[in-house]
Design goal:
globular; 7 strands; Rossmann fold; 2 domains; single chain; alpha/beta; two-stranded parallel ribbon
Length: about 250
């Protein structure tokens, strides 16, 4: 909806395919052929796909610009641009401390944001369930760029140190049973009581949707910026679309 809103505000129109069943993919058409065909219908393609690398593949076969709106557990670059924009509205990004919380192994928003923050001399703090840490390959890449990455067991270990708390959803489907999920999910919950010891200028971000990892009472606190973050997706994506089609 954010991309559709963006192109509408720019005076353009959009053609949406919301499900595989609604297009020729259901008949066995390859992604490459679908992209070739859609290239003849539009001036740009925005693709969200469950398979990692789908956007890169689409770009190889498209005759128009392709924007990656999320590919499986890979990357989500447009989300990162609006994340950076939201942080910049509150503080300079260079040299700050950022904590990533939640499913960091499969969370594409965390992957893209961590990569982008490595360009700003940011100290990265990670808090995640066992087995859902940042991929080792990404950690190695970021470390090679000089980024300091510090793992923590609890949010309380860093709440007084960080400038940005970036919370992601613990994905229930990654756990073998409900009990295992709830045992983990309950330990990663942002509450007003937890934020009482945070820096005054701390901002809490979340790519949404949230489940119960952020207490609704946090919404009324000045730290909460996730709905503003979501709204920022429209002007940022307007800029992206204008840039690639100009």
């Amino acid at each position: 909806m954010s991309f559709e809103s963006a192109i509408a505000r720019l005076g353009g129109t959009s053609i949406s395919v919301s499900s595989v069943e609604a297009c020729s993919i259901a008949k066995g058409e390859t992604l490459a052929d679908t992209i070739r065909v859609v290239s003849g219908y539009a001036d740009a393609i925005v693709i969200r796909h469950p398979k990692e690398g789908a956007a890169r593949l689409a770009a190889e076969f498209a005759h128009v610009p392709v924007i990656n709106a999320g590919d499986g557990a890979g990357q989500h670059p447009s989300q990162t641009l609006l994340d950076l924009y939201t942080i910049r509205q509150s503080m300079p990004i260079d040299g700050i401390d950022v904590a990533l919380v939640g499913d960091l192994r499969y969370g594409r928003t965390a992957h893209s944001l961590a990569s982008a923050l490595s360009l700003y001399g940011v100290r990265l703090h990670t808090i995640s369930p066992k087995g859902l840490e940042l991929p080792s390959s990404l950690v190695e890449t970021l470390s090679a760029k000089g980024m300091e990455i510090i793992e923590h067991d609890e949010i309380t270990d860093v709440i007084g140190q960080v400038d940005v708390l970036y919370v992601t959803r613990i994905q229930r489907e990654r756990f073998p049973d409900s009990t295992s999920y709830f045992n983990v999910a309950s330990s990663y919950r942002i509450t007003p009581e937890l934020l009482a010891s945070a820096k005054e200028h701390l901002i809490v971000l979340h790519p949404l949707p949230r489940v119960d990892e952020i207490d609704p009472r946090v919404d009324a606190l000045p730290h909460a910026r996730y709905f503003e973050q979501s709204r920022n997706g429209v002007p940022v994506r307007m800029a992206m679309l204008l840039r690639v089609m100009a």
